[in-house]
Design goal:
8 strands, alpha+beta, about 220 residues, Sortase, Chain: A, single chain, about 25% helix, eight-stranded mixed β-sheet
């Protein structure tokens, strides 16, 4: 009698297991889709959190950088404050050991009081025959990113990294202009160019323009 009951129990359990297995097989496409939706939602939340922590709020840039180059305010602060920059590329000048990131043109940190700054009329390095124009303070203080720019000479190289691609240039010309808040750029318009603008070394009345062409 007990053997018959045990046999029926085993058959019932086996039948229940097979039924459950069949249900799971039928539901597996729906479960996989549900799992993918859950993971996608989780990844989106993680991404949004990372973005809010790592990216600055973007605002319309005010093109005051050229005017600001006219007057470098004195400062006793030697270390830059910490900001949560989101760099879109880097400028390197090996001769003077310079390497500094630059932010998007529309970022509020695209300003020479925070960084080297991209001109509002600048092209980006990936534009054919374009001119990538960067401005920065020289002199002294933590914002004087171009303090040693006067040490480079014709033939020295500058490297721009943008969108995971490197663009190598060499210096072909330098010249001075009065500090008026405007700059005339003289270059070969049949080539790409990199133009760097800063206050002239030990000169309160001029700014120096450095013209680079692709190597």
């Amino acid at each position: 009698m007990n053997n018959k009951i045990n046999k029926k129990s085993r058959i019932f359990l086996l039948g229940s297991f097979l039924l459950l297995l069949a249900i799971l097989v039928l539901l597996s496409p729906w479960l996989m889709e549900l799992k993918e939706e859950v993971f996608a939602e989780m990844n989106l939340k993680i991404y949004e959190k990372q973005q809010s922590q790592s990216e600055v709020k973007e605002e319309t840039a005010v093109d005051e950088n050229l005017t600001a180059l006219e007057n470098l305010p004195p400062t006793t602060q030697t270390e830059a404050p910490t900001y949560n920059y989101h760099y879109i590329g880097y400028l390197e000048i090996p001769k003077i050991g310079f390497r500094r990131g630059f932010v998007d043109k529309n970022s509020k940190y695209n300003n020479i009081e925070y960084n080297i700054a991209i001109s509002s009329v600048s092209d980006f390095p990936d534009k054919e025959k374009g001119n990538f124009i960067i401005m920065g303070h020289s002199g002294y203080g933590y914002t004087a990113f171009f303090a040693n720019l006067h040490k480079i000479t014709i033939g020295d190289q500058a490297i721009v990294t943008y969108k995971n691609k490197q663009y190598t240039y060499q210096l072909v010309n330098t010249y001075l202009q009065d500090k008026t808040g405007k700059v005339a750029i003289f270059r070969d318009f049949n080539k790409k160019a990199l133009t760097l603008i800063t206050c002239t070394y030990q000169d309160n009345y001029h700014q120096t323009i450095f013209i680079f062409e692709p190597v």
